[in-house]
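dumping this here before i forget
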Amino acid sequence: MSNHSPLPNESITPADSDASTAERYHRRFVRSVKAPAQFVSFWAAIALPFVHLPLLARGLGDPNVLLAFSVLLGINVLALYAGHGHNQP
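structure:
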């Protein structure tokens, strides 16, 4: 009879038994930060276009408005890239 557990056994025994302790902590840290970062990036990519609308309504003739629009557009592109894997298996 096999024991089917819904949780992986990676926390009990690491997949790389020859990996150093520092490498295991680094991998665990990356796994623990990746999901929240993707979540925030995903929703930021959805919300940022609404911040662009007032800037576009004001017009891009003012250099400060143009700079703010360009920076927000760059941040939106980065958020799209970082959050594209959110909630995927």
